[in-house]
């Protein structure tokens, strides 16, 4: 059975639901999604290299990203994604930073999303799901900024959209302290 995703307007207001496949055909239909960055106590961010077979695969990406299903809250969707992709079943509390729209054409499909950006503090173990990612790294914000700006093609476009917005926040906004 196909996932049912939440359709939204340009302000993120729910307008209906549609199947995941339908949301990504042609120009796509705007739907609710999220991107997350995990930050450890040293101020580093976790990034993952997407599995080559995935949309945007073979490139570096945010800590975790997915869609919000029609029967989920953002918090439930983030927990589901962190558990599935990174083996993190902790009761983490996501901190909302901002939302934005995002559109990218990808080989006859499209990501047409209303993305909400969250950060989470985490210092525990990571158990990477090899079906979802090839590898992961913890990287300081300044190192990641230099790396991204010197090699943006090595990153997913949605990583850049989220990361460029996130780094505008003071670092204390990215931690619980």
Automatic annotation (TrEMBL):
This protein's UniProt keywords: Isomerase, Isoprene biosynthesis
One Pfam entry name: NUDIX
Matches recorded under CDD domains: NUDIX_IPP_Isomerase
GO terms of biological process kind: isoprenoid biosynthetic process
GO molecular function: isopentenyl-diphosphate delta-isomerase activity
Pathway involvement of the protein, from the record: Isoprenoid biosynthesis; dimethylallyl diphosphate biosynthesis; dimethylallyl diphosphate from isopentenyl diphosphate: step 1/1
Domain of life assignment: Bacteria
Residues annotated as domain Nudix hydrolase: 29-161
EC number: 5.3.3.2
The keyword Isomerase belongs to this UniProt entry's keyword annotation: yes
PROSITE patterns (alphabetical): NUDIX
PANTHER family on file: ISOPENTENYL-DIPHOSPHATE DELTA-ISOMERASE
Family as reported in the entry's similarity comment: Belongs to the IPP isomerase type 1 family.
Protein name: isopentenyl-diphosphate Delta-isomerase
Organism: endosymbiont of Escarpia spicata
Lineage of the species this protein comes from: Bacteria, Pseudomonadati, Pseudomonadota, Gammaproteobacteria, sulfur-oxidizing symbionts
């Amino acid at each position: 059975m196909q996932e049912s995703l939440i359709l939204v307007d340009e302000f993120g207001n729910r307008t209906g639901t549609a199947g995941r496949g339908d949301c990504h055909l042609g120009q796509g239909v705007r739907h609710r999604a999220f991107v997350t960055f995990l930050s450890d106590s040293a101020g580093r961010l976790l990034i993952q290299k997407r599995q080559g077979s995935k949309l945007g695969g073979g490139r570096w990406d945010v800590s975790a990203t997915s869609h919000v299903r029609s029967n989920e809250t953002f918090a439930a969707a983030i927990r589901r994604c962190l558990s599935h992709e990174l083996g993190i079943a902790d009761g983490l509390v996501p901190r909302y930073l901002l939302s934005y729209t995002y559109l990218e054409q990808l080989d006859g499909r499209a990501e047409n999303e209303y993305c909400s950006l969250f950060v989470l503090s985490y210092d525990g173990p990571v158990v990477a799901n090899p079906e979802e990612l090839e590898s992961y790294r913890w990287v300081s914000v300044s190192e990641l900024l230099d790396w991204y700006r010197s090699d943006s093609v090595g990153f997913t476009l949605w990583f850049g959209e989220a990361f460029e917005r996130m780094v505008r926040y003071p670092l204390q906004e990215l931690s619980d302290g």
